[in-house]
UniProtKB/TrEMBL annotation:
The lineage of its organism: Bacteria, Pseudomonadati, Pseudomonadota, Betaproteobacteria, Burkholderiales. It holds the Pfam family Glyoxalase. This is Glyoxalase. Gene3D superfamilies: 3.30.720.110, 3.30.720.120. Coiled coil: none annotated. It comes from the Bacteria.
Length: 142
């Protein structure tokens, strides 16, 4: 089943974001549309039945004018993405190698699964865990 709700993100360094999100979280670049001066006009990264779309900050899009980066609003986020993974501990290890900041330590959740929250290289908040809300058992089963 593919998700019909897709998060849209902006990054100052779009090409690096694509590289890092693929290496750390396991996304695969499905479509990358280059913009001017090495920016990303539009990218689609897929993982299982889910997807995030992203583009570079300042690429002149109408959407981009509506979005602020965490460093522009005191480090806060107004939304975040949850990614279902098969091994949260392994993803955490990759995130730490990349220098991401753990903001909620890894733990077993009372409702099932194991997860944590991190800020990536540009301060975006990501929630990672094995809890799969689509599964009747609550684990990723990936």
């Amino acid at each position: 089943m593919r998700s019909t709700a897709i998060s849209c993100l902006r990054y100052r360094d779009g090409p690096r974001a694509i590289d890092v999100l693929c290496r750390v979280l396991g996304f695969q670049a499905q479509l990358v549309v280059p913009g001017e001066n090495g920016s990303i006009a539009h990218a689609q990264l897929v993982l299982g039945g889910g997807m995030v779309m992203l583009g570079s900050v300042g690429n002149g899009s109408e959407y981009g004018k509506l979005v602020r980066q965490p460093d522009e609003i005191g480090g806060f986020e107004t939304q975040s993405v949850y990614v279902v993974v098969g091994d949260a501990d392994a993803v955490l290890a990759r995130a730490e190698v990349e220098g991401w900041t753990v903001v909620i330590p890894i733990r077993d959740e009372g409702y099932g699964g194991r997860g944590f929250s991190v800020r990536d290289h540009e301060g975006r908040l990501w929630n990672i865990g094995t809890y799969d809300p689509w599964s009747t058992h609550g684990d990723a089963g990936l």
